[in-house]
Amino acid sequence: MLNIADDIIKIAETAARQAGEIIINKKGLSSFSEKGNNNLVTEADYAAQETIIKIISDKYTGHSFIAEENDISANINEPDLWIIDPLDGTNNYAHQIPHFSISIAYARYGKVEAGVVFDPERGELFSAAKDMGASLNGKRIAVSRASSLQEAIVATGFYYDRGEMMKKTLSSIEKLFAQNIHGIRRFGSAALDLCWVACGRFDAYFEYKLSVWDFAAGLLIVNEAGGCCSDQKRNQLTLSSPGIVASNGILHNDLLDIVSWDNEF
Fold this sequence. Notes:
Layout lengths: L3 H23 L5 E5 L2 E4 H17 L4 E4 L4 E2 L7 E8 L1 H5 L6 E8 L2 E9 L4 E6 L4 E3 L2 E2 L12 E4 L7 H15 L4 E3 L4 H9 L5 E4 L4 H13 L3 E3 L13 E4 L4 H8 L6
Parallel strand pairs: 3-5, 11-12, 11-13
Antiparallel strand pairs: 1-2, 3-4, 5-6, 6-7, 7-8, 8-9, 9-10, 13-15, 14-15
Helix pairs in contact: 1-2, 5-6
């Protein structure tokens, strides 16, 4: 059995840091293109992903991967699965906005057991292993203690769809403001949004559609920091969930009363 704390986490952290170096070195030099409506991809995405997969594959032969670029998609229930977003926040990166991250998760049979998210601009490395807590640069982190929405900063995100989903997000934001929350933030990296919930910078976060590589590491980091994650239909969050609602746990039901949505995507 693999020693997650001493082995998996270390290799994930090494891969994330090396990918971060590539991304920073290519900043402002990496050309980009559209792989979908308003969904950009850069040379840095591809180079970072290649580096991450090589580092992990050199250490663990036979492991499987789900990764954002080049349509690398294993079965989500593989016994040894790595879920990788080499550059979460590509649109920010392409426009030279310094807010993006690398997300790496390790899962066994559909359950995340280790996760790392690295913010190369701030040098912040978030890590978690199942039942072992979450940390930021080696120091234990915990979710906020905000006890009501009136005390909360809530983060959100917009999928690339500019139709019904965008309207629902805007409607939920309006309803949250009616609760007299402290504010709404939309920064453009779901992995970091989740980590910022985990360390108490945000009190909650919701987004109606994400890919598994956007949230796999972050969901474990939130849970291990004492928070709560579900989907927008009030179900337990899984790697197959379409979207995410995350909070410090105290606010979760009140948040879901406002942002829950049963539509299929």
